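TA notes, week 10

Several of you asked for a full example with nothing omitted. So below is the full record: structure tokens for the whole chain, then the designed sequence directly under it. When grading your own attempts, check the secondary structure regions first.
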């Protein structure tokens, strides 16, 4: 079936309803566009469980702070739709902000625990914006399965939690981080790096790998692992915003100073005004 684009909620819903009536399971991948292989890997994931695939492209204004990069976020809808037309996607949802947020909009979703960690400390209301738009998109699409990348580890955990907390009839799948050949985690924001910063950027993952190497060879002391990461970037243009080792399960700090259950080492850093995030799972 040829790919179709939808600007209106009602039109998308009609297409999804028809697909469901044909007995197809609905797979959904929400994105903000400027698509790359990370996004495409999530499409492949949902294709394993569903026959009608919806991808949304919506740069959600409510998840950007006033000082953040909403206005300069990469937008390239035409080439995105072209790329999706080769991936077995059936429907691309391209709503306007007015379509998603009706006049007088005033109802939000808030996580009261995990959202305050990691990026939540620095991006006020970011996860409120994410959870609100994802819940809205879930209500619009009513997918059987939806995929989220572990690149945005905290987001993936929060959405998984929301699905449980709100009894959402959707299976949430996590996708592994897709990286460039030099190790940099793929991100739409990488397009905003200048040539020199693009050369520097892989150092973020290299520093995580250095810590992970020590972890795999037996180091369990959290402060030591963090130190390895920070020292690796000491003379780099990368300005670390946070480097934290939390429980994978709860996204809370460990009660002791050593890792005694599966952990995630999550980091954020600025490079030439571009904010990069990355993480590595420290499995036991
Ligand atoms: P975004 O367009 O950045 O909002 O991302 C849309 C989805 O793609 C989210 O679930 C992200 O976690 C996921 N994603 C972004 N970058 C990657 C990556 N490098 N590897 C895997 N998933 C990713």
């Amino acid at each position: 079936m040829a790919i179709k684009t939808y600007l209106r909620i009602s039109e998308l819903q009609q297409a999804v309803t028809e697909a469901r009536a044909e007995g197809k399971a609905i797979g959904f991948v929400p994105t903000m566009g400027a698509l790359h292989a990370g996004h495409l890997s999530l499409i492949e994931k949902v294709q394993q469980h569903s026959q009608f695939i919806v991808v949304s492209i919506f740069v959600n204004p409510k998840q950007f702070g006033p000082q953040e990069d909403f206005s300069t976020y990469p937008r390239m809808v035409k080439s995105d739709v072209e790329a999706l037309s080769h991936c077995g996607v059936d429907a691309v949802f391209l709503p306007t902000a007015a379509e998603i947020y009706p006049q007088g909009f005033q109802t939000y979703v808030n996580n009261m625990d995990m959202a305050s960690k990691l990026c939540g400390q620095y991006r006020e209301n970011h996860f409120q914006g994410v959870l609100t738009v994802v819940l809205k998109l879930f209500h619009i699409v009513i997918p059987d399965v939806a995929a989220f990348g572990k690149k945005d580890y905290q987001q993936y955990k929060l959405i998984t939690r929301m699905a449980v907390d709100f009894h959402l009839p959707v299976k949430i799948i996590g996708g592994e981080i897709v990286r460039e050949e030099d190790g940099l985690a793929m991100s739409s924001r990488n397009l905003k790096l200048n040539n020199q910063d693009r050369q520097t950027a892989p150092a973020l993952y290299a520093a995580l790998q250095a810590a992970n190497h020590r972890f795999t060879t037996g180091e369990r002391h959290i402060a030591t692992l963090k130190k390895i990461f920070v020292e690796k970037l000491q003379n780099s243009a990368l300005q670390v915003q946070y480097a934290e080792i939390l429980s994978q399960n709860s996204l809370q700090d460990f009660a002791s100073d050593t890792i005694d259950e599966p952990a995630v080492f999550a980091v954020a850093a600025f490079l030439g005004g571009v904010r990069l995030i990355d993480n590595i799972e420290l499995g036991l």
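The chain is about 35% helix and 20% strand. Use that as a sanity check on your answer.
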